Amino acid sequence: MGKLNEEVVSIQRGKKPDEPSVVTVNCPDKTGLGCDLCRIILEFGLHITWGDVTQVLCDLELTIQRVKVMTTPDGRVMDLFFISDGMELLHTNERQEDTRRRLTSILGESCISCELESVGPEYGPFQQEVSSISPEVARELFGHESSENEIFSQALTPELARLMKADITIDNLLSPAHTLLQIHCVDQKCLLYDIMRISKDSNIKITYCRFTRSTKGYRDIDLFIQQKDGLKILIPEKLDVLCSRLRLEMLNPLRVTIASRGPDTELLVANPVELSGMGRPCVFYNVTCALKQLGICIFSAEIWRHSTSAREWEVYRFLLDENPEFPLANTQARNQIVDKVRRTLMGW
User: Fold this and answer.
1) Where are the annotated coiled coils located (predicted)?
2) Which of 51, 287, 303, 341 could make an SS bond with 67 (beta carbons 3.0 to 4.6 A apart)?
3) CA-to-CA distance for 24 and 14, rounded, in angstroms?
C-alpha cells in the first residue's frame, strides 16, 4: 500500500447525539496551522448574512476597511462596506458589475438593491469617527495590554471574578525535543483558538496538544511546543514573555464596555487582530444574539480597525435603543448588559 501523502479531511460522528464528533485533518504542517483550523471550525455552520458578503468580497480581492449597519424608519437595514480594491480596477464598469452580480447572487431575495459608489467628501466625518471615542473609553478598551495584574474586570460579577485564573507550568525535561506547557485555566468559548492564535503570532510551533474535558468550569491543556527552527525553547526570558501573553489573553481576550456619546448609549467590543490581519470569528453574531435575548434593539452597528503601540484591534460599536427593562442610564442595567454580552462571547 502506497504512502498517504494527499490532503484528507474525515469526520467521525459521535455514536450518541450528545457525543462529540472527531474531525481528522491530514495536510502539510506549518506554523499557525492549529489557529487556522480553529478559525474554520468556529466559522463553519453559522448562517450570518453579512458573513456571506465578506466571503464574496474576499474572493474578489476587495479589502473591507470599515462596516456600518443602520436600520431605516421603514424597518429595513442598510449595510455600508467601505472597501479598497487590491486589483485597482473598481473604477471600471466591468469590475463593478461583476462585484454587484456576485453580491446579489449570494444575498438572494433579501437584497433590495446593491450599489457601488466612490467615497466622496460627505463620508469624511464617518471615516474619522473613531476619534470620537473618549480617552477614558479608549483606556477601558485598549489599556491593560502589558500586565497580568491589570486584568480588565470592572464589570465582572463576583462569581466570574473568582473563576478568572490561568496557571502555566513549564517543563523542559520531559521531552528531549519539545518544551511542555501545562495550562490550567477557566473553560471558555474560543479557548483553543486564543491559545493557537498567540502561538502563531509568536512564531511558536505546536507539535502536539492534549486537553481534558471541562471539569467544574476549568480545563487542563498540555502543549508540546518548539521554535520555528524546530528546537525547544530554552531562553527563560522568551518563555516568560510567552507565558505572560498566554495568561493575559486567556483571561482577557475581549474587551466589553458601555459608554455615552451625547444623548446616545453605545456598546463597544474590542478584540486583538491576528498578525495575519484576521479578526476574531463570530463576534458580531454573538453580540447581536446576546442583545436579542435581552430584548434590546440595535439602532446601528459598525466595525473598524484601531491600532495601538502594541497591536491592532477590531472594534465593534452598537448604538442601542432604549428599553424599559434595561434603562440605559442606570449603572446596574449597563453592568447586566455587559455581563450578558461577555458571557455569550465567552460561552459562560
Assistant:
1) none
2) 303
3) 13
The total number of residues shown for the chain amounts to 348
Across the chain, what does the average pLDDT equal?
Answer: 78
Summarised one tens digit per residue, pLDDT across range 48-80 is 333 477 667 767 777 777 777 777 777 777 777
Q: pLDDT per residue over 160-205, tens digit each?
A: 565 667 899 999 999 999 999 999 988 888 888 889 899 989 999 9
Q: Residue 305 phi/psi, 5° resolution? A: -105, 140
φ, ψ dihedrals at 40, nearest 5°: -60, -45
Neighbours of 241 (CB within 10 A): 12
201 with 274: CB under 8 angstroms?
Answer: yes
Give pTM, 2 decimals: 0.69
Using the CB atoms, write b or e for 61-76: b if 16+ within 10 Å: ebebebbbbebeeeee
Query: 308 with 253: CB under 8 angstroms?
Result: no
> Would you tell me how many other CB atoms lie within 10 Å of the CB of residue 318?
22
